[in-house]
Amino acid sequence: MTNAITYRTRWADMDPNGHMRHSAYADYAADQRVVLLAQWGFDLKSFAQLRLGPILFREETKFIKEIHIGEEIQVDSQLASVSEDGSRWTIVHRICKADGRVAATVTVDGAWLDLDRRKLTVPPAELVTAFGSMPRYETPAG
């Protein structure tokens, strides 16, 4: 998995049925995005200086395999689509079990917000280039 981050699930991630709660999947996907942006040189301090922030319009999780407490998981990002100017994008996160089986996908549609004007904006060229380096999502066959 390229750009994947490995996590170990925690007690706080679990639901009463003994498997990972629905919102924990979104939390791991969001954390992976923040880490990836920071690796590209766009950490939270940089976004504050740029007066720019990512926003989501849609978040959808597809649950495939159960994840339990203490399991090692890997979360990656793949670019499903991006507008020509980089202002809007769709990312698919794969959350995989230690053996590589996909346990869930989290798909997010987002854009960039000018924090002063409170309007959508075009990101800096360096961020557009970085997004372009993300692996492309290919819809699984079947």
From TrEMBL:
Official protein name in the record: Thioesterase family protein
UniProt lineage: Bacteria, Pseudomonadati, Bacteroidota, Cytophagia, Cytophagales
Gene3D superfamilies attached to this UniProt entry: Hotdog Thioesterase
Provenance organism: Hymenobacter negativus
Domain of life: Bacteria
SUPFAM superfamilies reported in the protein's UniProt record: Thioesterase/thiol ester dehydrase-isomerase (SSF54637)
